[in-house]
């Protein structure tokens, strides 16, 4: 399955009351330029979101507060990655189905995306997603 969990660079100050600073640098830490940022917040514990894939969009997902499970599916395998630390990131390549489950009320999911918003770039039907994955697999075999 084509995704990568990364350690987000973080600075920890000698005085713990000063907090911490975490950061990523586009095209240094990420294999894509950032064209869009968005975040999802205010969700109740147990909320399920996502249920889509992208045809072009690379993404970095991270959870600066709380805990969120990402269920990833490449049409053959399903894996779960838990984002539960501001210093943990998840890079997703195009063509992965994703579902998100909020493990904690008010968890925040932040996303840095390689593409501008385009509703036609989303695959929201699971059967259409499987057809897309099969077309990719068949193209690679040629």
**CATH classification class:** Mainly Beta
Mean pLDDT: 93
Task: Characterize the biggest β-sheet.
Answer: 5 strands, antiparallel
What's the CATH topology name? Jelly Rolls
Helix content: 10-25%
Order of helices and strands: EEEEEEEEEEEEH
Q: With helices defined by DSSP (H or I, 4 residues minimum), what is the helix count?
A: 1
Strand order of the largest sheet: 1-9-6-11-4
Distance between the termini: 20 Å
From the alpha carbons, calculate the radius of gyration and give it in angstroms.
16 Å
Number of strands: 12
Overall tally of structural domains: 1
Name given to the CATH homologous superfamily: Jelly Rolls
Would you identify the regions where 5 or more consecutive residues have pLDDT less than 50? none
Q: Indicate the CATH architecture.
A: Sandwich
Describe the secondary-structure layout.
Blueprint: E1 3-7, E2 9-12, E3 20-23, E4 36-40, E5 48-54, E6 59-65, E7 68-73, E8 78-83, E9 88-92, E10 97-102, E11 108-113, E12 122-123, H1 126-141
Antiparallel strand pairs: 1-9, 2-3, 4-11, 5-10, 5-12, 6-9, 6-11, 7-8, 7-10
Key descriptive features of the protein:
five-stranded antiparallel sheet; Jelly Rolls; mainly beta
Would you give an account of this structure?
With 142 residues, this protein is mostly beta strands. Helix content is 11%, strand content 44%. It has a single domain, classed as Jelly Rolls (Sandwich). The strands form three sheets. It has a five-stranded antiparallel sheet, with no helix packed on it.
């Amino acid at each position: 399955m084509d995704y990568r969990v990364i350690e987000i660079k973080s600075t920890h100050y000698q005085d713990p009351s000063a907090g911490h600073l975490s950061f990523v640098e586009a095209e240094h830490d990420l294999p894509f330029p950032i064209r869009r940022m968005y975040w999802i917040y205010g969700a109740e514990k147990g909320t399920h979101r996502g249920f889509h894939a992208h045809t072009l969009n690379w993404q970095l997902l991270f959870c600066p507060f709380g805990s969120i499970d990402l269920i990833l599916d490449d049409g053959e395998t399903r894996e779960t990655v838990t984002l539960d630390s501001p210093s943990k990131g998840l890079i997703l390549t195009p063509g992965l189905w994703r579902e998100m489950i909020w493990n904690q009320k008010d968890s925040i999911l932040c996303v840095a995306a390689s593409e501008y918003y385009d509703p036609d770039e989303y695959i929201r039907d699971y059967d259409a997603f499987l057809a897309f994955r099969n077309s990719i697999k068949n193209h690679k075999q040629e």
